Amino acid sequence: MYEAFQARSARRVALARQALMLWRDCVDAHVVLAEDTSSLEEARELLERGVAAGERVLGQKPFDEDVGYFWSIHETRPYMRARAALAGTLWALNRREEAVAHQRDLLRLNPNDDQGLRYRQAEWLLWLQRYDELNELFAAYDSDNSAALAYTKALAIFRRHGFENAKSFLDEARAANPHVIAYLTGRKEMPAEVPAHVAFGDEDEAVEYVARAAALWARVPGALEWLEFSSTAPRRSPVSRLRGLAPRRR
């Protein structure tokens, strides 16, 4: 599997299959094979097998005794990778409650969230309008300075309470990363590939967030217009000019 991680395309897949022939419970091999297939259903089946293999390999003990710092135990990482990939695949298959449940449990096992699942979870909870759980997630990661949580929080406030209440949250999000708005509104073209590594406040972080959350912003009526107006309007613009952007209050 270490060779497979360094290989590409057919060689990568061949090594993953070889690993499974040597050991049927090689979790990462299932993940590599799932990444290679174009079928979401086949990917789901492979990842479910990977998660089951991870549970067999780990046994019950870490689930009883090591909750809270799973990722710090290296043996748990293949299982965590497989389950996170499964969550993403289930979401793509429109099995969204299952996807959210998997990520909720992964965050319970490892609240330090070395995988960065909190960002995707926040977006999914907002998509499903699970506001109580979303607020709990924001509170749990209150010290997080990422653009992802800041912009998702601003969008959540806008969706529930309108632009006037969301303005200060958008100001905080813009301070966290000013590049996001240009990409979300289409004033700046997205690159062909999402960067592998990002840093807080840089353009790569903006690209990563927008690649994942653009559909969520487009789903909320008036949200993109609000962003466009907020990025170009004078500081003392009359509120009346924004009345048409406020979503219906819930």
Describe this structure in words.
It is a single chain. The chain has 250 residues and is mainly alpha-helical. It folds into two domains: 115 residues, Serine Threonine Protein Phosphatase 5, Tetratricopeptide repeat (Alpha Horseshoe), CATH 1.25.40.10; 122 residues, no CATH class. The protein is 66% helix and 0% strand. The protein has 14 helices and no strands. α6 runs antiparallel to α7. The longest helix is centred in the N-terminal third of the chain and has 19 residues. It is globular.
Structure, briefly:
The protein is 66% helix and 0% strand.
Task: Give short descriptive properties of this protein.
250 residues, mainly alpha, Serine Threonine Protein Phosphatase 5, Tetratricopeptide repeat, 2 domains, 0% strand, globular
- Average pLDDT: 92
Q: What number of structural domains do the residues give? A: 2
Percentage beta strand: under 5%
Biggest sheet details: none
Query: Helicity range of the residues?
Result: 55-70%
Task: Give the SSE string.
Answer: HHHHHHHHHHHHHH
Q: For the terminal residues, how far apart are their CA atoms?
A: 50 Å
Q: What best-fitting shape do the alpha-carbon axes yield?
A: globular
Computed structural class: mainly alpha
Low-confidence stretches: 233-250
Radius of gyration: 20 Å
Total strands: the figure is 0
